Amino acid sequence: MNSYEVLDVDPNTNFDIIKKTYQKLILKYHPDKLQQSGIKSQEIIEENNRKFQEIQKAWDNISTPQKKIQYDKELLAKSFKQDGVINEEIDLDDMEYDEEEEAYYSECRCGGIYKITVEDLENNINVVSCDVCSLKIKVLYEVIEDEIEE
Ligand SMILES: [Zn+2]
């Protein structure tokens, strides 16, 4: 699990909110709190301490905005290596259209290019790969309908 999964927060959430979430969790799982509650079960204590350490470790990766930027880069680099994963969904309207090529373009986070041709669209293809890395996007577009728009 990555740090965001451990803390159960959205990576794009405001840093202060992530910090508050961490603080809440670390209080919740603090060994002192367990001691105060009088719980003697070794199993529960071990599980709690494991969770406590996991939260601390997760937070350590992203505990300052600078560290978070670095960590996010590492996560992104890892995601580049995963094959066949759809990185994001992009609306066709948000892509650049090239009339000469009859294709739509979008820039990948790696600097590469996603390209989907009009022919692809006609063949109902909606997943395309970056020409540099292994990321894929899903292109969102409406199938042409005869219905009258309201
Ligand atoms: Zn790419």
Automatic annotation (TrEMBL):
Keywords: Iron, Metal-binding, Zinc. SMART domains: DnaJ. CDD domains: DnaJ. Residues 86-142 form the DPH-type MB domain. Pfam families: DnaJ, Zn_ribbon_CSL. InterPro entries: DnaJ_domain, DPH_MB_dom, DPH_MB_sf, J_dom_sf. Residues 2-75 form the J domain. The keyword Metal-binding applies. GO terms for molecular function: ATPase activator activity; ferrous iron binding. Required for the first step of diphthamide biosynthesis, the transfer of 3-amino-3-carboxypropyl from S-adenosyl-L-methionine to a histidine residue. Diphthamide is a post-translational modification of histidine which occurs in elongation factor 2. PANTHER family: DNAJ HOMOLOG SUBFAMILY C MEMBER 24. Belongs to the DPH4 family. This is Diphthamide biosynthesis protein 4.
